[in-house]
Design brief:
Elements lengths: L4 E4 L8 H6 L1 E8 L5 H16 L4 E8 L1 H4 L12 E5 L2 H6 L1 E3 L10 E7 L12 H4 L3 E5 L3 H8 L3 E5 L2 H9 L6 E4 L3 H7 L5 E10 L4 E5 L4 H17 L1 H15 L9 E4 L6
Parallel strand pairs: 1-3, 2-3, 7-8, 10-12
Antiparallel strand pairs: 4-11, 5-11, 6-9, 6-10
Helix pairs in contact: 2-9, 2-10
Length: 269
């Protein structure tokens, strides 16, 4: 079996013809503004899944711009073979969704980031209606934005990722929901701010981040699904997930019996 290799794409004319001759190039979208443990985990999981399925290939991470991300879901009109993203009906219609939640459901569990001075305001919030009196921020094209709006929450959509942290830190937005698996690393990245996690409250909704593959390569989608299922069966999937995220999950400031989970409906999943 040929090992899965990574080739960082610099969009030049100097692609290795030797690699192309040996293996199939698998061009994977790489979001330039979010290079963190979450992205590293998804890259490594993909490589291991393909190895488990004995699918030879060269994974080429292809950086995409903010403008390109808006067209990303239509893989048929690009040179990309696949990407990973939260599921939505539109995305599942345009590409082959491998319906194995890559973060085991934790992507739908959302800690609430807020200005340190605002924590006390959330102390008595126990219902969706009460939370609806507060303002939230999300990405303008994120599936989360539509989910939260559907449930009656007041959401301000933005295009600038870092501005969401800034506005919340300054108290101009009441809270910024972030998934359990990424919130601690984001707090470290924004350590000069006064952002904290609301300790007595979080929201949740059913959703999943999937691998999406172009419809022109069904054999690739089949191989990835096969590899992921093999990893689930032999424990490798859980082991890799825990390697990346167990510590962060254990650091969340929630106390059993004292923390309220507000469950949202997700009609798009």
């Amino acid at each position: 079996m040929l090992p899965i290799k990574f080739l960082v794409c610099v969009l030049s004319l100097f692609t290795s013809f030797a690699l192309i001759a040996q293996d199939q190039i698998i061009s994977v979208a790489q979001k330039q503004d979010t290079q963190n443990a979450r992205e590293e985990y998804l890259s490594e999981l993909l490589a291991r899944a393909l190895e488990s399925a004995n699918y030879p290939g060269v994974i080429r991470m292809t950086p995409i711009s903010e403008h390109q991300k808006r067209k990303l879901i239509n893989l048929q009109s690009s040179d990309l073979d696949m990407y990973w993203s939260m599921s939505s009906p539109e995305r599942e219609a345009l590409a082959l969704a491998i319906k194995i939640p890559l973060f085991k459901g934790y992507i739908g569990k959302r800690a609430l980031l807020t200005n340190r001075q605002n924590v006390a305001r959330f102390k008595n919030v126990k219902t969706l209606e009460q939370l609806g009196e507060f303002s939230a921020v999300q990405g303008h094209n994120w599936p989360d934005t539509r989910i939260m709006s559907y449930n009656g929450l007041h959401v301000r959509p933005l295009t600038n990722y870092q501005a969401m942290f800034t506005l919340t830190s300054r108290g101009r937005i009441d809270y910024f929901p972030r998934s359990f698996i990424e919130v601690n690393s984001e707090l470290i990245e924004n350590k000069q701010s006064n952002l904290v996690v609301v300790p007595n409250l979080y929201i949740s909704y059913p959703t999943g981040i999937y691998y999406f593959v172009t419809k022109s390569k069904p054999e690739l989608a089949i191989a990835i699904e096969k590899g992921l299922k093999l990893m689930q069966g032999n424990g490798e999937f859980d082991a890799l997930f825990n390697e990346y995220f167990a510590d962060d999950l254990n650091k969340l400031p929630y106390t059993k019996g004292k923390t309220v989970e507000i469950k949202l409906d997700n009609p798009y999943f």
